[in-house]
Write a structure and sequence with these properties.
The protein has 537 residues and is α/β, with parallel strands linked by helices. It contains 20 helices and seven strands.
């Protein structure tokens, strides 16, 4: 058997079926594993003895189990008409509403995290020498579930945090709370000088013995004034310098004491806010435990006076840190938008440094992510190369049509111009002309041909430069500045009617060679060996 060098968990989306054949996520992941293995052997021949293991993570069955009582409730509420259609909606589309409910969102998050931990432990027991990366893939709603789970790893959650709050702000809040636990230690005190050190600073080393004879210690030294120094025989110039130095020391001490007092006041206010939040969190948790013990669960909101408020969800903590997160046909951008939040350029996932979103251009469920990071960057998604090494033929033809239509008018005018010149040349050839005129005409023709070639080369170079520039634009910190949105190339028959293939495009990722190859390229990076270009359809 091939050695496994990387592990990938795939979280499914809504409903018990994951493709158009109504197969489970386990069967679909088997297809994706087989396709990725074929791409690995074709494009990474030096890794032919290794492979990436893809394992499914299912949560739909636990949500609709007898423990939650969801199916019984829906059965009593569902109308009798259009039974099959209503049953289909209850099994699929309603999963979205369940996830937006705080009570069932908790069930889904716990189901996903527990299944990941269970399979991860089994995998480690069967592969004790495994040292590769662990990565996550989320399809459809599964991508939103994984994103929320990763966004709350190692940070405040539940009553102390909520969706739409950047993780960086939560981490900054935790850091500030830790610093304010010892407010005095956080304030840098001014440097303290002894009597001898003070006299050396102002050049009065010769008077150190005199101060020692008078038994002047550090405390009494700070109480002395100009007349006291004059009685000790200190000249006018050094005496003024010493008085100014002591004044600066006293001013620094006063500023230090004032800053300490302000920090203590802020710490008391912050501690009171933390205590109130913990009490609120504790009360909500106790209420949940009591309801679970009684076999019921009530929806709890942090701010019941503000509409539906913000739900209380305790996000589980994973024992591993994924290196990459892939989204397949994900509506994450829409979810973040309807929550009223945004990501921003500084948003990061605490334990996952790279995020890649893959979607079909006709997928009705997929939404982009990059505009949620920086709306000012108006770039199309990165087009995923075909696994045979080039664009599909019909896409190349479509791109050329735009260029041809733009040059059509120019070509017609040039043809008319050349015809008119040919007529003129024919007329002039039957008239006596000097050799200087013929040379000038030939020179004009050569310049015209050279200009056309330069314009054609400039257009090709501009297209190539634009494609490279789109790849190199930095998009926030979510994926280390790399591009996030990647779009597949539709097949030729799909381009005839995008509405006809819309639903199928949302379920096409399991058998997509281009999607599997992009995942492998992101995993192995520079180790990829490009296949020779071929004509693809």
């Amino acid at each position: 058997p091939l050695e496994v060098d990387h592990l990938v968990f795939i979280v499914d989306g809504i409903g018990p079926a994951a493709d158009m054949q109504f197969r489970s996520i386990h069967r679909c992941v088997d297809d994706f594993r087989q396709v990725s293995l074929e791409m690995l052997q074709q494009h990474f021949p030096h890794r032919a003895k290794k492979r990436v293991e893809f394992l499914p993570i299912a949560w739909h069955e636990k949500l609709h189990s007898d423990t939650t009582g969801v199916n019984n409730t829906l059965r009593n509420l569902t109308l009798g008409s259009c039974r099959r259609l209503r049953d289909f909606i209850n099994d699929t589309l309603l999963d979205i509403l369940f996830y937006m409910s705080p009570a069932y969102c908790q069930v889904i998050q716990e189901a996903v995290a527990e299944e990941m931990e269970r399979i991860h432990n089994i995998f480690k027991s069967r592969h004790p020498s495994f040292s590769g990366d662990v990565m996550l893939v989320g399809h459809s709603l599964g991508a939103c579930i994984v994103f929320d789970l990763l966004a709350h790893q190692g940070v405040l959650s539940g009553a102390l945090a909520g969706p739409g709050v950047p993780v960086s702000e939560q981490q900054d809040a935790e850091t500030s709370l830790a610093e304010e636990a010892n407010p005095v230690e956080a304030v840098q005190p001014p440097k303290q000088y002894t009597v001898a050190e003070t006299l050396k600073e102002v050049g009065l080393e010769a008077f150190i013995e005199k101060f020692e004879e008078e038994q002047i210690d550090d405390n009494s030294f700070k109480l002395m004034g100009g007349e006291d120094f004059k009685e000790l025989g200190i000249p006018m110039g050094p005496r003024k310098k010493l008085i100014g130095f002591l004044r600066d020391l006293n001013k620094a001490d006063e500023e230090y004491q004032r800053e300490v007092a302000e920090v203590k006041t802020r710490a008391k206010v912050a501690q009171a806010a933390r205590d109130a939040a913990r009490e609120q969190h504790k009360a909500a948790q106790e209420a949940l435990e009591q309801q679970e013990a009684a076999g019921t669960r009530r929806i709890i909101f942090q701010h019941p006076t503000a509409g539906v408020g913000q739900p209380l969800v305790e996000y589980p903590q994973l024992s591993f840190k994924p290196s990459r997160f892939f989204l397949l046909g994900s509506p994450l951008g829409m979810f973040i938008s309807i929550r009223g939040g945004h990501l921003g350029p500084d948003f990061t996932l605490p334990t996952c440094p790279q995020v890649v979103s893959i979607f079909h251009p006709f997928d009705p469920v997929a939404y982009r992510i990059e505009p949620m990071i920086d709306p000012s960057i108006q770039l199309p998604p990165v087009q995923i190369p075909h696994h045979k090494g080039r664009k599909r033929l019909h896409l190349e033809l479509r791109d050329n049509i735009g260029r041809m239509s733009a040059n059509l008018k120019k070509n017609i005018l040039d043809s008319v111009k050349q015809t008119w010149q040919a007529v003129q040349n024919f007329a002039k050839s039957h008239q006596p002309s000097t050799w200087q005129e013929q040379v000038a005409m030939e020179q004009v023709e050569q310049e015209e041909k050279q200009r056309e070639e330069e314009e054609r080369a400039a257009m090709e170079a501009a297209d190539q430069t634009a494609n490279q520039a789109q790849q190199q634009v930095a998009i926030g910190r979510l994926s280390g500045g790399q591009r996030i949105d990647h779009v597949l190339q539709e097949r030729p028959f799909e381009s005839f009617n995008e509405y006809l293939f819309a639903l199928q495009s949302h379920l096409c990722y399991w058998t997509s060679e281009d999607s599997a190859l992009l995942v492998l390229r992101k995993i192995y990076g520079a180790d990829h060996q490009a296949a020779p270009p071929q004509t693809s359809t």
